[in-house]
Design goal:
The protein has about 350 residues and is mostly beta strands. It has 2 domains: about 60 residues, no CATH class; about 260 residues, Extracellular Endonuclease, Chain A (3-Layer(aba) Sandwich). Helices cover about 10% and strands about 30% of the residues. It contains 6 helices and 17 strands. The strands form 5 sheets. The chain has an 8-stranded antiparallel sheet, covered by helices on one side. Strands 2-4-5 form a 3-stranded antiparallel sheet, with no helix packed on it. Strands 1-3 form a two-stranded antiparallel sheet. β13 and β14 form a beta hairpin. The radius of gyration is 20 Å and the shape is globular.
Length: about 350
């Protein structure tokens, strides 16, 4: 006999963080469920409190994981450069009393401009099981004290000449890729978002479409764990900032995503952030299709909209970037350790 709790039941007030037996790492659900053997210890965090139950099939159910407070999402500085001298590597995760920190994903932050370089997270299709979105609208401030992140992302603050186009808080690690409701909360940090045009970020935009296609691909290959790198490229010759006076929160010119598994790189994608289009390309051969029709949900091909306002997209294999790879050297080194 065993204890089982569906992750679809761990929502709303059940913002619980289930841990492995080491009490220091997140327990991965399987096929949308957490399972324990009879008599096995169940370790979890409610709010900031570390708690333990013992698996007894007759007494363990979702109600045992009601939490009065949400998890304490925070970052940990790893004291490691990740894209130049002004960069720092952080882990985002959950903190509990007694100094316990449970990591979830990793990000690279440019401290001089308070801008994100890239984020790395893991995606396992077999983990998922009917957990809805968080409907979370508030983002947690990050490591630049005094910077009014929230204010700068408002349309009133941006004063865009055309009200149809404005910058949203573009997730790099999308909450869609987090299988557990409480884990999704950790993606709502200003350490995990960059200014992104609404027509590219929202449903129907190519960045949204790319996130959707990668997620569906992972579900179709449920037993493969993917490591996803999401990042941006800034223009060093023409720096643009969301916080203009402070020269903080830089606006990117490209978004990129690299999908890898344990042994090789699947593809690298580039989404232009220029609403007028671009002739620039990083791929010798475009392996994406660009004839996606409005409203289609096909996942047979990497198919995108061929419209600049949605973000012109192209993709290729890692080897196609050998001579003009624009990604940070630290990311290239990590990925080059895989077989391509």
């Amino acid at each position: 006999q065993s204890c089982q709790v569906a992750i679809s039941e761990l929502q709303s007030e059940r913002k619980v963080i289930i841990l492995n037996s080491d009490k220091r790492s997140l327990k991965q659900p399987s096929n949308g469920k957490y399972s324990w053997k009879s008599g096995e210890s169940i370790h979890f965090i409610c709010g900031k409190d570390l708690k333990t139950l013992t698996c007894s099939p007759s007494s363990i159910n979702a109600k045992r994981f009601d939490c009065a407070k949400p998890p304490d999402v925070t970052e940990r500085d790893l004291n490691r450069e990740c894209n130049g001298k002004s960069s720092k590597t952080f882990q985002m995760g959950f903190r509990a009393s007694g100094g316990l920190f449970v990591p979830y994903y990793e990000l690279c932050y440019l401290m001089d401009t308070c801008s994100v370089s890239h984020v790395k997270h893991r995606l396992l299709g077999a983990s998922f099981g009917g957990v809805s979105g968080t409907r979370e609208k508030s983002f947690q401030s990050f490591v630049c004290p005094g910077l009014r992140y929230n204010t700068h992302y408002t349309q009133a603050s941006q004063k865009q000449p055309d009200p149809r186009f404005y910058f949203q808080r573009g997730h790099l690690f999308p909450d869609r890729d987090a299988p557990v409701f409480a884990w999704k909360l950790a993606t709502y940090s200003y350490g995990n978002c960059v200014p992104q045009w609404n027509t590219i970020n929202s449903e129907g935009g190519n960045w949204w479409t790319l996130e959707y296609l990668v997620f569906k691909y992972a579900q179709q290959t449920p037993n493969t764990e993917y490591t996803i790198y999401d990042g941006v490229l800034y223009d060093p010759r023409n720096k643009q900032y969301l916080a203009k006076q402070e020269k903080k929160i830089e606006i990117p010119v490209w978004f990129w995503k690299v999908v890898t598994n344990q042994t090789h790189v699947l593809k690298v994608f580039f989404v232009s952030h220029n609403l007028k289009g671009t002739k620039q390309t990083f791929c010798n051969t475009n392996r994406c299709v660009n004839d996606r029709a409005k409203g289609t949900k096909t996942v047979e091909t990497w198919d995108f909209y061929n419209e600049a306002s949605r973000g012109i997209t192209h993709c290729c294999y890692w080897k196609d970037l050998a001579r003009k790879n624009p990604l940070p050297i630290e990311v290239q080194r990590e990925i080059n350790n895989k077989k391509n």
